[in-house]
């Protein structure tokens, strides 16, 4: 990866951590997620007038990814409901790069050497270690939250691979990501309107500005990541994206008044060591 691509993905990681923090500060996580995804889709819709329809080879990946994203958004919101972000987020974000690395090497023959692979494993371990910040008892206090976190991680691995391949089949990554976000929001919006219509509409009126900001950050973050996967190996981009956990820790300390514990500090060092091993 060039320095420019690396920097771009780090910017995406910051945007990703920011919209997750916005979700955390909302009271109803499921509705907040639906608002954010809807905002992203509505931002993307007007841009379709400037992009041609996706080529036939890219449509299977875009449709599959939209379905997987619906599962991701739902499971992530439920993980927030049944388990604190400090428990669910590190598990979700840390385990996904490992699955992406394994499947990329086995199925896609992505160019990843041993040093880079070890770096990805160390980085992932550093992220997942944050889940132990409150001890094993706190981690296992919400089995349902852990189950939703695991399901979210599987979805991340699957849509990362699907989107990386789909963007490579499209005429451009920019074209692919806008069509993807336009396809992404209707299922979650429809489901929310069916089951939680009143709560959703009330939340939309009261929180339209944070939702729009979070949606824009989500769109920009994934836009950059998808573009990066067209010019660099998918597992490296997927791992580098997860440095969002560093930004999440910083946001937690500065905005949410969380303290820097020894485990958090050690986890950050592991992530940095992983990046060093990846030679980024």
Walk me through this protein's architecture.
This protein has 280 residues and is mainly α. The chain has twelve helices and no strands. Helix content is 81%, strand content 0%. The radius of gyration is 18 Å and the shape is globular. The termini are close together. The model has no long low-confidence stretch (mean pLDDT 85).
Question: What are the salient characteristics of this protein?
Answer:
280 residues; mainly alpha; 81% helix
| Helix/strand structural class | mainly alpha
Task: Report the sheet-strand fraction.
Answer: under 5%
The number of E-state strands comes to 0
Low-confidence stretches: none
Biggest β-sheet strands, sense, barrel: none
Shape: globular
Helix content: over 70%
Q: What Rg is obtained from the alpha carbons, in whole angstroms?
A: 18 Å
Average pLDDT over all residues: 85
Number of helices: 12
Q: Span from first to last CA?
A: 8 Å
Sequence of secondary-structure elements:
HHHHHHHHHHHH
Q: Which helices and strands occur, and which strands form pairs?
A:
Elements: H1 3-25, H2 29-44, H3 59-82, H4 85-108, H5 114-129, H6 135-139, H7 143-169, H8 173-206, H9 208-231, H10 234-241, H11 244-254, H12 262-277
In short:
By secondary structure, the chain is mostly helical. The protein has twelve helices and no strands.
């Amino acid at each position: 990866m060039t320095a420019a691509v690396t920097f771009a993905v780090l910017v995406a990681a910051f945007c990703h951590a920011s919209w997750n923090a916005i979700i955390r500060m909302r009271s109803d996580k499921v509705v907040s997620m639906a608002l954010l995804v809807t905002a992203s889709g509505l931002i993307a819709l007007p841009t379709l007038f400037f992009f041609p329809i996706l080529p036939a080879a890219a449509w299977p990946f875009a449709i599959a990814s939209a379905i997987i994203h619906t599962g991701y958004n739902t499971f992530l919101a439920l993980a927030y409901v049944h388990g604190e972000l400090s428990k669910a987020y590190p598990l979700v974000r840390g385990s996904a790069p490992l699955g992406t690395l394994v499947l990329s090497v086995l199925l896609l023959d992505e160019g990843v050497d041993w040093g880079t692979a070890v770096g990805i494993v160390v980085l992932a371990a550093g992220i997942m270690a944050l889940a132990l910040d409150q001890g094993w008892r706190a981690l296992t206090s919400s089995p349902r939250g852990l189950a939703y976190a695991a399901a979210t991680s599987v979805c991340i691995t699957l849509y990362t691979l699907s989107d990386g391949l789909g963007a490579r089949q499209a005429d451009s990554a920019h074209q692919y990501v806008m069509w993807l976000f336009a396809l992404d929001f209707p299922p979650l919006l429809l489901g929310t309107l069916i089951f939680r219509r009143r709560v959703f509409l009330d939340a939309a009126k009261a929180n339209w500005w944070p939702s729009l900001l979070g949606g824009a950050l989500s769109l920009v973050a994934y836009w950059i990541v998808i573009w990066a996967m067209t010019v660099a190996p998918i597992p490296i981009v997927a791992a580098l994206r997860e440095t969002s956990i560093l930004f999440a820790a910083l946001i937690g300390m500065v905005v949410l008044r969380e303290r820097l514990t020894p485990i958090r500090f050690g986890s950050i060092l592991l992530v940095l060591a992983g990046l060093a091993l990846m030679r980024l």
